Amino acid sequence: MVHKWWRVVLVYLAGVLAGSLCSSVTDPDVNLAGGSGGVYAILTAHIATILMNWREMSFPCIQLFIYLTVIVGDLAMSIYQRCWLRRSNGVGYVAHLAGALAGVLVGIWVLKNFRPTKKETYLWWVAVFTFSVLMGAMIVLNFVYDTWLRK
């Protein structure tokens, strides 16, 4: 395995955390069960691996196209079912979306980058900052949510 097991676990846990925090703020009436945010994080972390190791990968354009097609198609279908068809089947679609975003961001700074360039180092810092700000905002919103957002 190219990435150590603990790197994959960190990506998974970041997706679970991001999914649960974001879901509790934006869609509090949905009960979460399972680790779908973490699964989406692992799926989208491969996109981060492709982007960070573009020159070292075999057929990166094809890999990126296939992954984006599958993931964007799945997320689009989920959003369509929830927003336009108004199906409230108890699935935490927001957790899927947040987990997917966490997978890309955390994947950039946790997964192995074989030959870092200056541009990739800049992208690494942007990913760390963005994930930290988003998670910090979700944590703060979870604390203040009951006092002023639900009224």
Write up what this structure looks like.
It is a single chain. The chain is mainly α. It has one domain (5-24, 33-142). The chain has helices at 5-26, 36-52, 60-84, 93-110, 118-149. The mean pLDDT is 87.
Name a few traits of the molecule.
single chain, Peptidase_S54_rhomboid_dom, 5 helices, mainly alpha, 151 residues
Question: Unreliable segments (pLDDT under 50, ≥5 consecutive)?
Answer: none
Largest sheet data: none
- Overall pLDDT score: 87
Task: Please write the string of helix (H) and strand (E) elements.
Answer: HHHHH
- Gyration radius, to the nearest Å? 16 Å
DSSP E strands, number: 0
In total, the number of domains comes to: 1
How would you concisely characterize the structure shown here?
With 151 residues, the chain is mostly helical. It contains 5 helices and no strands.
Lay out the secondary structure.
Blueprint: H1 5-26, H2 36-52, H3 60-84, H4 93-110, H5 118-149
Helix pairs in contact: 1-2, 1-4, 1-5, 2-3, 2-4, 4-5
